[in-house]
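Cross-check.
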Amino acid sequence: MADQETARCLEQVTTRIASAKRMIENNWDRYINAPYDLARLHLARADQLLEEARQLASTDMEGCRSKATLASTEAWEGYLLSLPSRVAEARGVWYRPVEKNHEEVGRTLDRMLAAGFNELYLETWLWGYTIYPSHTAMVKGIEAQHPAFRGYDPLEAFVKEGESRGIAVHAWLDGFMVGVDTTGGPVLRAYPEWSALSHRQAHSEKPLPQQGTGYFWLDLTNPSVRKYLLDIVIEIVSTYRVAGINLDFMRFPHTDEDWQDTYCFSLYAREAFQREHHWDPLEISSEQRELWTIWTKWLEQQEDEFVSHLYKEMKRISPNLIVSAAPEPGAESTKIGNWSQHVDVVIPQAYYATAPEVRPSVLLHKKELMPGNLVYSGIYPMYAQLGAQETIEQVLAAQDIDMGTVIFAFGQATDETIRALRLGPWRNAAISTGMYPLRAIQALLEAVKTDMKHVYLPRLAVHEQAALVIIARLDVFLDALQRHEGEELTITLDEKIAEFKPLLLQHQVDGMIHPVVVEQLTNTLTDVQELLHYAQMKQVK
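Predicted model, tokenized:
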């Protein structure tokens, strides 16, 4: 049995080394800018350690396995060092705070910085509580702060300490979902009439939880509920230098299993609908398709109108504030196109166990949106404890179509994963695309010039004459970034890029530039245009 385990261990290491070598060769052939000398050094060490392990296999199994483990580590580091590392992307993480003082906050942020994160989505509206002391809640007779944080302000601490480390803090909101407390949580304890109720709960005189999840929900059709949540968000944005607002749980829960568990049949919602349509939605069923559609569309309109109003208020207070949405699979995802004009960034919850499942989900959301939104990949390998390798693969899964990644959740981050992110895809510092689109464009263009000098020309992937022409065009683009802004900048660069793309193809036809390099440059120009349109349409600089 021991011999079989040793043989299996050696086989696994052999496979990992082979995988790392393939990645190095593949990215070398694609002219990816990476520290290949160092990566190959690690692979050479891995080969040597594996050979030493094999020699010990029959005489010293413990020593054999020790050498094999070291070989596997060397191969893994070589693999990571060969990966592409973008200079412009969002690198975010969702996080529920537990820290009790500034020092603990600082240590948490240092770990985030060590991984390469440049954005933090901090859970700020949590199960009906704010994590900070809220004057808005106090005035309404609602508990002013989550009891775990009484005595200090974690939002203030994270914003202050985040700024000093270059990590932008977004306030992540649980929307109209107010937790699992059997009393309904702080808001519904004070205002039980604000509770959302399902069809089967409609006659209840007290708040009841959602079937299955145990979640309590607020009735967003009620103007008092809307005003309260909007006032909370305005308070956050007006009091703290948060970089953005991250919307979660912003639609009523939906189910395909039993229509009687659908929302919202509160007395207020029913009466409001009856005033407009002259009949009580409680008196129909999902089988009455035409009437049911009118009812569900009315609810959908209530949700959409709130998000639209919130977006306008946020931009009125702080035009550069980033409003993002993290749609869950189901209604939030299928209807995300409704919010295209009312959010800046969309982060689909592409929560899957394997990397190949991530990209189709991200692409599906992107197709639902109008031009002008940015899309990040929302993934959860940390939360699901899938390990460092799966985390890396999921970060890379949709890089051809996304503008960044947000990982759920930092509370489950391991040191191994933090190190892997920093050695691999987050090796280079990156400008957040959503936060600073124009700076991100500059970083992308400067990176092409760097690659031209250090990769393409030395490896003869571009003829010197073509390189001079390309660099000159890039300098024109960079100059336009300094000279123009807004719509004028977009029009100017769009025109220049439209002229430049055919030139690249002609250089390829003439044998002056490798097709892989043309593909890379074309993709970069496409990213530049996407960021330009985002910056202009969402008025983000």
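The two ends are 63 Å apart (CA to CA). The chain has a mean pLDDT of 96. Passed to J.P. for a second look.
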